[in-house]
Amino acid sequence: MERKIIIGNWKMNPRTEEEAMDLVREIVNKYEERDEVEIGVAPPFVFLEGVSNVILKRNIRLGAQDVFWEDQGAYTGEVSVDELKSLGADFVIVGHSERRRLGETDKQVNKKVRQSLNSDFQVILCVGEPKGMRDKGVDVAKRFVSGELEKDLEKTKTALGRSPENLIIAYEPLWAISSEEGSEPATPEKAVEMISFIRKFLEVNEIAKAGETRVLYGGSVDSENAGEFLGRDEIDGALVGGASLEADEFVGIIESIE
Ligand code: PGA
Questions:
Q1: Mean pLDDT for the chain?
Q2: In this model, does residue 242 exceed pLDDT 80?
Q3: pLDDT per residue over 199-231, tens digit each?
Q4: In DSSP terms, which residues pair with 9 in a beta bridge?
Q5: Res 209: pLDDT
Q6: Which of 29-33, 161-165, 207-211, 215-219 is the least confident region?
Q7: Catalytic residue check, 249
Q8: DSSP states of the chain as a string?
C-alpha cells in the first residue's frame, strides 16, 4: 500500500497564538510516527513560525492555506512562496472552496498553482462541485470538476514534468464540508468514483502519469469515518478541516490507517 497523507487545514482557527501552540503540542505528544502515513498541518499564516518551531524535529510537514503568484513587491497583504519557505513551510493549499466563494477565480488559482510549481513548492489543489451540481447528477458534477482542473492546471506541464510529485489534488465536494449548512460526508463510493475520474482526467490530458499525482478526499472526515475512506486504495489521503482542530480527533484519523 502507498503511504497515505493526512493534512489538517486549520482555516481561520484557533483564536490566539497560545491556543495554536497548545493544539500543535498536543498533536506532537499524542501522535506516533509511522511509516504508513505522512502528516501535515496548515495553520493560519500568523501561526506558521510558532508551529514550525514545535514540529521542527518531528515528522510533521508545515503548509500554508494560500499564496500569492508574484515573487516579491508592492502587493499589500499578500504572502510569497519564498516567505513561506523561509518559515519552514513546504506545501500550500490552493483553490479551497472557501477562498473561491470570496471571489478567487480559476485564473487566480492557476497563477498560484503555477507560481508554486515553478518554485518547486508542493501544491494541494482543491476542486469539488457545489450541491446544486451534484443534485443534477454525477455527470454534471464530473463536468464541473474537470472544468476546474482544466483551468487551474493550464500551462503546468513543464513544471510537472520535472517534479510530478509537487501536485496533489484534494477532491472536496462543497456539500460535504462540515461547515456547510446541511452538509454530510460523501460516501467512500462517491469519493472513489470522482477520484478515479480525476486521475483519468490527469492521465488523458497528459498532466500526470498513473500514480504520480496523489488524490485526497476532504469533507467531514473524522476519526469515526476516516477508516472507510482511507481504507480504499484509490484514496491517497484526507484533507481534514474541523476534526483537525482537536488533537484526539486528528490523531484518531491518523491511527485509523491500517
Ligand atoms: P471539514 O473541512 O473536514 O471540516 O469538512 C474540510 C476542508 O474544508 O478542507
A1: 95
A2: yes
A3: 999 999 988 776 789 999 999 999 999 999 999
A4: 42
A5: 74
A6: 207-211
A7: no
A8: -PPEEEEEE--S--SSHHHHHHHHHHHHHH----TTEEEEEE--GGGHHHHHHHHTTTTEEEEES---SSSSSS-TT---HHHHHHTT--EEEE--HHHHHTT--HHHHHHHHHHHHHTT-EEEEEE---HHHHHT-HHHHHHHHHHHHHHHTTT-HHHHHH-GGGEEEEE--GGGSTTSTT--PPPHHHHHHHHHHHHHHHHHTTSS-TTTSEEEEESS--TTTHHHHHTSTT--EEEESGGGGSHHHHHHHHHT--
Whole-structure pTM value: 0.97
Q: Rounding to the nearest 10 degrees, give the CA dihedral for residues 107, 109, 115, 121.
A: -160
- For residue 242, how far is its CA from the centre of ligand 1 (angstroms)? 6
Nearest to 9, CA basis, from 257, 217, 258, 228 = 217
Q: Which of 179, 216, 230 to mutate to test the pocket of ligand 1 (most atoms within 8 A of CB)?
A: 179
Q: Report the separation in Å between the CA atom of 250 and the middle of ligand 1, taken as the mean of its atom positions.
A: 12
